[in-house]
Amino acid sequence: xxxxxxxxxxxxxxxxxxxxxxxxxxxxxxxxxxxxxxxxxxxxxxxxxxxxxxxxxxxxxxxxxxxxxxxxxxxxxxxxxxxxxxxxxxxxxxxxxxxxxxxxxxxxxxxxxxxxxxxxxxxxxxxxxxxxxxxxxxxxxxxxxxxxxxxxxxxxxxxxxxxxxxxxxxxxxxxxxxxxxxxxxxxxxxxxxxxxxxxxxxxxxxxxxxxxxxxxxxxxxxxxxxxxxxxxxxxxxxxxxxxxxxxxxxxxxxxxxxxxxxxxxxxxxxxxxxxxxxxxxxxxxxxxxxxxxxxxxxxxxxxxxxxxxxxxxxxxxxxxxxxxxxxxxxxxxxxxxxxxxxxxxxxxxxxx
Length: 352
Prior knowledge:
The chain contains 16 helices and twelve strands. The strands form two sheets. The chain has a seven-stranded parallel sheet, sandwiched between helices. The chain is 39% helix and 13% strand. The model has no long low-confidence stretch (mean pLDDT 95). The protein is of the alpha/beta class. It has two domains: 151 residues, Rossmann fold (3-Layer(aba) Sandwich); 187 residues, NAD(P)-binding Rossmann-like Domain (Rossmann fold, 3-Layer(aba) Sandwich), CATH 3.40.50.720. The radius of gyration is 23 Å and the shape is elongated.
């Protein structure tokens, strides 16, 4: 009997790859947890999205499920602990949109330093000729990156890519805070590793590139804003929950920091009545940092490839919960392979 792969609706998914591999494709609505359970209940693999969340409830209701694969890098919408405990691989596509996110973060920082949003909007409204005083204000407040300190919170692939790009603008120094990266590694990028408090105090411009975990939830909170310079600018193109939005609103409105730019928010999409949209020194884009035509061409192939690889006994393109290898080994050794019955043993291939 062929494997069944559940696919959440998306025009970008490459369902043809599953059919070419001799697998059956199950498609259906999945906007609620109940619909997602119905879609996944008989599936061996699944292509999933950010919403609805892939919770323990969903995973426990899917006894045949062996692998879930998500578009892009993030896996924060999946209960990783539950998946690992149940023997389900969680796959992503690391590095597939590093370029896009790093570019967007630089663009957001430039938009803040050069006040692009304000100047474009008022120029289009005829203010260049009608309000020369406003133009004078812009001339006195646009800023350069050269000679300033740039801080990077989270120095993984995207943080490194951002550092490579921003060096060309001539900052006085680039700082990074990441407890899992050594100074030896940072030296390759001309970056100085410091603790988070030092980065917050010394940076003129900051960008956030850490993953969303319990450890990093609201890593930028009221206490963090209190340590920043009043002229500080902060960019977040990573995950919304990294910044406490209530504290951010206070910091922006009170002048505790100068401005911010977000591509991600704690709740997405942002409600049309959200107070975030009324803050003049906050720029928002709709979670587009990781996207480009090239990303949308390449990522679905790699995403589908992970499911096909796992079900045929080879290594996926990205594995977010490598601890699951041990869980599956124990299941097989017990004589009751469960959901993995009939699937080739790929434990050696999955060692990373």
